[in-house]
Specification:
- The protein has helices at residues 14-22, 50-61, 95-110, 134-144, and strands at residues 3-11, 30-32, 39-49, 68-73, 75-78, 86-90, 123-129, 148-154, 156-165, 168-178, 181-182, 189-190.
- The two termini are 28 Å apart.
- It is α+β, with helices and mostly antiparallel strands and 191 residues long.
C-alpha cells in the first residue's frame, strides 16, 4: 500500500444502518451517506505511507478494551441553523466508548503520529449540507430530531481506508479488532 487515507471507527449493525438510511432524504442541498457508509469515527488519521499503515495495524491489535452497548439518540446539526454543514445522529454518554477511544489514541501516538487536538465528540454523520435551505433543515429536524436506535452491542472496531469516487467516499475495513467479552459464568474476559 503506497499512501492510504485512514480512520479508526465503529461499524454500525446493519439493522441500525438501515434504520438511519430510512430517515435520510428530503433536504435539498444535502449529500446523504448510504447505509454502508455509516460509522462512528473514533480517530481520524489521514494519509499515511505503507510503513505507518503496518505499524498502525500492529499497535491497534494490541488495544484491549471491553465490549459494550451503545445507542443513538436524536439527530442534530454541526454548525448553527443558518449555516449548518452536517446532519448527524447523536450518541448519548457512553464511558466505555470514551475508554476505547483513549486507548486507540494512545496506540496512534505510539506509531509517531501527532495527538488529536480536537475533543472527541462521538456522532454518526448522516449528510453534509451544501446550501441547504434552513427552513427545510428545520422541517427535517422537526420530523426526525427525536430518532432513537439501540442499545446495540459494540463488539469490534476497525481500521478503515477511505477512497474518493464520483458517488462519494468508499470505506473499506482494512483490519478488524475484537473487543473483549466477559463470560457470564466465570467472569473471565475473552476476545
Amino acid at each position: 500500500m503506497n499512501m492510504a487515507r485512514l480512520f479508526v471507527g465503529l461499524p454500525l449493525p446493519e439493522a441500525v444502518a438501515d434504520r438511519l438510511g430510512a430517515v435520510c432524504g428530503g433536504v435539498p442541498g444535502a449529500r446523504w451517506l448510504r447505509p454502508d457508509q455509516f460509522h462512528l469515527t473514533l480517530r481520524f488519521i489521514g494519509e499515511v505511507d505503507g510503513g505507518v499503515f503496518d505499524d498502525l495495524r500492529f499497535e491497534l491489535g494490541r488495544v484491549r478494551s471491553a465490549a459494550f452497548a451503545m445507542g443513538l439518540s436524536g439527530i442534530d446539526l454541526l454548525g448553527n441553523r443558518r449555516r449548518a454543514h452536517v446532519l448527524f445522529a447523536a450518541v448519548p454518554s457512553c464511558p466505555p466508548m470514551f475508554e476505547l477511544q483513549a486507548r486507540i489514541e494512545a496506540a496512534v501516538c505510539r506509531v509517531g503520529l501527532p495527538p488529536e487536538r480536537r475533543r472527541f465528540a462521538p456522532h454518526v454523520t448522516l449528510a453534509r449540507l451544501n446550501g441547504a435551505p434552513p427552513a427545510k433543515v428545520c422541517d427535517y429536524l422537526g420530523q426526525f430530531g427525536l430518532f432513537q436506535a439501540g442499545p446495540f452491542a459494540v463488539e469490534r472496531f476497525a481500521l478503515f481506508s477511505s477512497h474518493l469516487s464520483r458517488s462519494g467516499s468508499i470505506y473499506r475495513a482494512e483490519a478488524t479488532y475484537p473487543l473483549q467479552r466477559q463470560h457470564a459464568l466465570t467472569g473471565a474476559w475473552a476476545s
